[in-house]
Specification:
Radius of gyration: 19 Å
Helix content: 25-40%
Strand order of the largest sheet: 3-2-1-4-5-6-11
CATH topology of the largest domain: Rossmann fold
CATH class of the largest domain: Alpha Beta
Largest sheet: 7 strands, parallel
Distance between the termini: 51 Å
Strand content: 15-25%
Shape: globular
Low-confidence stretches: none
């Protein structure tokens, strides 16, 4: 009898990849999301298109499940999270989803639950220096996330870990750092930096100009989606509840990321730095704890992941008639 797993957010980027990974391991998989996957048919055995803010949808989704992977959230890139225009929705929608999933999961007797938190929970005051950001797991407190999205994630971490303490639930919590790859949002305002850079390069003629928010000297690290899914599976089967960083330690400036994409595409573009939302000045994953607890670290370079991602986004841009 195969184990049954529920992926909340299965219509999204990481959720879609996780469904395929679980299927390859022999799980029977149910997916649930407010939307179907934008770029492919879900590999899930059953897919519930429904709103996880609705208790009845959650009760139906968790029924009979052994494992739950809770990746669903109201989220997006800097253009969505850091403007402040969506704060109420981000906090209300995501908190409601998490309150529903953990409580109705408990009532249904779910054996194990994974929660995807975010590096956005880390204090802004530790991320002012782009060259030396501090993002070790123990640096989360005193708390001062840079966005309401981060505050909700921090609340929900505590929510799941409280259920673990009070009800004996098997809980695993990961803090994702900028996951990217094919089959993710690449335009429309919710895309993240790697996808945005790929799109801008793909839709700009060689010698042209692309826009970038800020001076491009802010730093980040980016983790390819297959690496993320591997870490999630190791966490779910491993001995440590977390929270654990799941990210890359290969830190680059956003200018360097743009130059990398141009090089992959074989195009040289001018960069026009314009005002726009940027988030913290510097952020990089600190993988010391996950190496110690799970023996995990990324297996490929940022460049290798970006080559695959650019190829996919360039093809999407071509099909959309915007490639140059």
């Amino acid at each position: 009898m195969s184990k049954k797993a529920l992926v909340c957010g299965a219509g999204g980027f990481i959720g879609g990849h996780l469904v395929k990974r679980l299927k390859s391991e022999g799980f029977w998989v149910r997916g649930v999301d407010i939307k179907m996957h934008e770029f492919e048919t879900s590999a899930a055995d059953e897919f519930i298109q429904g709103d996880l803010r609705d208790p009845e949808v959650v009760k139906r989704a968790v029924d009979g499940m052994d494992d739950v992977y809770q990746l669903a959230a109201d989220m997006g890139g800097a253009g969505y999270i850091f403007t402040g225009d969506h704060d109420a929705n981000v906090m209300h929608n995501s908190a409601t989803i998490n309150l529903n999933v953990v409580e109705f999961g408990r009532q249904a007797g779910v054996k194990r639950i994974f929660y995807s938190s975010s590096a956005c929970i880390y204090p802004a005051y530790n991320q002012m220096d782009p060259d030396n950001p501090k993002c070790s797991e123990d640096s989360a407190y005193p708390a001062e996330p840079d966005s309401e999205y981060g505050w909700e994630k921090l609340f929900s971490e505590r929510l799941y870990l409280s259920y673990m303490r009070n009800y004996g639930m098997y809980v695993r919590v990961a803090r994702f750092h900028n996951i990217f790859g094919p089959l993710g949002t690449w335009r429309g305002g919710r895309e993240k930096a790697p996808a945005a850079m790929c799109r801008k390069v793909a839709e700009t003629s060689a010698g042209g100009t692309m826009e970038m928010w800020g001076d491009g000297k802010q730093t980040r690290s980016f983790l390819y989606v297959d690496e993320c899914v591997e870490a999630v599976r190791r966490m779910m089967e491993g001995p440590f509840e977390g929270p654990l960083n799941v990210g890359s330690e290969e830190m680059v400036t956003i200018n360097q990321l743009a130059e990398m994409v141009m090089d992959i595409a074989g195009k040289k573009l001018e960069i026009n730095h314009v005002p726009g939302p940027q988030g913290v000045r510097g952020r990089n994953s600190d993988n010391r704890l996950i190496r110690e607890k799970l023996g995990w670290e990324p297996s490929q370079s940022l460049r290798a992941g970006m080559e695959k991602t650019y190829a996919w986004i360039a093809e999407q841009a071509k099909e959309a008639g915007i490639a140059k």
